[in-house]
Amino acid sequence: MTIIEKIFTRACGKPVRPDMYVWAGLDLVAMRDFGGPNVVQEFKDNFGDAPVFDNRKVAITFDLHIPPRDEKVARNQQILRMFAKEKGIRLFDVNTGVGQHILMENGLVRPWDIVIGTDSHMNLLGAIGAAGFGMGTTDIAGALYKGKLWFKVPHTIKIVINGILKYPVTAKDVILYILKNLTTSGALNRAIEFTGEAVKMMNLSERITLTSMVTEMSGDIGFIEPDETVFEFLRSHKVENIEPISADEDAEYEKVYEFDITSLRPQIACPHSPDNVVDVSEVAGRKIDQVFIGSCTNGRFEDLKIAARILEGKKVNDNVRLIIVPSTMEVAQMAEEAGLYKIFLKSGAVVVNPGCSLCTTGHPGILAPGEVMVSTSNRNFIGKLGKGAEVYLASPATAAASAVRGVITSPMEFWS
Amino acid sequence: MEFENIKRGRVWRFGDDIDTDQIYPGKYLPLTDKTEMAKHAMEGTDRGEEFLKNVKTGDIIVAGKNFGCGSSREHAAIAIKGAGVSLVIAESFARIFHRNCVNTALLTFELKEAKEINDGDIIEVNIDTGEVKNLTQNKVYKAEPVSELEKKIINAGGLLNYLKST
Ligand code: SF4
């Protein structure tokens, strides 16, 4: 069996096959400041004052508009705070960071778990061997009530990544390259297992980068078999009784892709699709107005460290705004202790409090028509960050190098 | 309410990658009344106007790959159902859209040969066996039948009703 087949087999108590429809118990139901208030409304409309199925298995995270930017958002957050209090649900308020990362850092997600939430990138939890699914309002409301949901067991695609990752080429370049090959519909409704020597050597941040962008390939979930790297992270975040999970030797994969990344150069996704990927060198020199380093895909400590290595002792170009957003408060504190904030502030970057920030419209940092941004986030759909604006997706290294030069720049130039 | 196991209707053809913004444009997201939502079903597609003017109860939508991709808005499924469409056939569906259809009690079928069906064809779909008969072209296809699990949810009128009753 593949990892997802094992997880569903355990959760529904009978052996499953791809394409089977099953009911599965949930280990965690999460909602956030966006989407969450609608869930509360639907829950109340349908189930009145009923308690949630198990308040220890529900969490609310605020990561989108933090602190609230207008009255409507403030009101929405208030609705969630009241609901949390009423039902005894844990709430992570405006000072915490990106939901999925917060759930991991607080020991709420473990290998084997099935987790659902209102965000499109819940699947990044596959980086620690949990099955995360983004869901709509009705699903989450129903899940809060019953603690179970129906699933169609997905087929699994295996992606083997061989070779050795050489900085400043990063996991982001690898996943962009894979996206280029598989396209935005290449993993439609599929689970992916990433494996291979390059993956085994990746730290958790890099694994999160890989698994988060499964969404952009229309995949359900991307797994990496958890190993000591993950177990150590979990142990240091108070998770006990960790159970390893791995695919069986004879697991059946619908397709197997192999990539060798030894000679991979920095990659960039051009407007307006995440699979519109070329070598950075092909678009180098293009003028930019803004750079964003952060998001659930590239906002971890290691991501900031690479950016800092390039920014150290340099200034952000006069024609560019650089916005840096750590994914969580824990990451921010690590960055502060490691001296990264000093480097960022000296370079002229705007450092924002932890959260999702420039992942979608409505946030501080939105672009004007015709403006161009290099972003470390995961989507560059037309209009997502401002009407008539263009977004390029790249690694923190490419983003930082471009911020310094004021044009799209390969980080190779800064690496010695 | 049990549904009849044979559905017959006129086909409305749509292409690949029809996203939820085409099915239900974002500007109508504030609407909460289902009859109002139905007035905007498929409005963002290139033939939205024609569809809304002529769609009749029992009509069937047939689309290409990845139908319902994009945002997770449930309005998309609700509006299609509200417009009278009895079921949607596509080469493939985006996961969340498919979930939303089941959860709001709209029938969907995946059919590899969806592209062979033309706009305006009259087709007949057997819910239990997944057999799709194209009466206009005189062809027969086999789609995956609706699973027992989906049927139960759809018969109950959607996910929340189903969960309340179990
Ligand atoms: S950064 Fe964007 S995609 Fe990631 S969790 Fe936040 S809103 Fe979702």
Count interface residues per chain for the largest interface.
Answer: A-B, 25 and 30 residues
Q: pLDDT below 50 for ≥5 consecutive residues: which ranges of chain B? A: none
- Which structural class is indicated by helix and strand composition of chain A? alpha/beta
| Bound small-molecule species | iron/sulfur cluster
Poorly predicted regions of chain A: none
Topology of helices and strands:
The complex is a heterodimer of chains A (416) and B (166).
Chain A: H1 3-12, E1 21-25, E2 28-32, H2 36-47, E3 58-61, H3 71-87, E4 90-92, H4 99-105, E5 114-117, E6 131-134, H5 137-146, E7 148-152, E8 156-162, H6 171-182, E9 191-195, H7 197-200, H8 204-212, E10 221-224, H9 228-236, E11 255-260, E12 267-269, E13 277-279, H10 280-283, E14 290-293, H11 295-298, H12 301-311, E15 321-324, H13 329-337, H14 340-347, E16 350-351, E17 372-375, E18 390-393, H15 396-405
Parallel strand pairs in A: 2-3, 2-5, 3-4, 5-6, 8-9, 8-11, 9-10, 14-15, 14-17, 15-16, 17-18
Antiparallel strand pairs in A: 1-7, 12-13
Chain B: E1 6-13, H1 20-23, H2 34-38, H3 48-54, E2 60-63, H4 75-82, E3 87-90, H5 95-103, E4 107-110, E5 122-126, E6 131-134, E7 139-142, H6 148-155, H7 159-165
Parallel strand pairs in B: 1-2, 2-3, 3-4
Antiparallel strand pairs in B: 1-5, 5-6, 6-7
Bound molecules: iron/sulfur cluster (SF4).
Iron/sulfur cluster binds next to helix 11 of chain A.
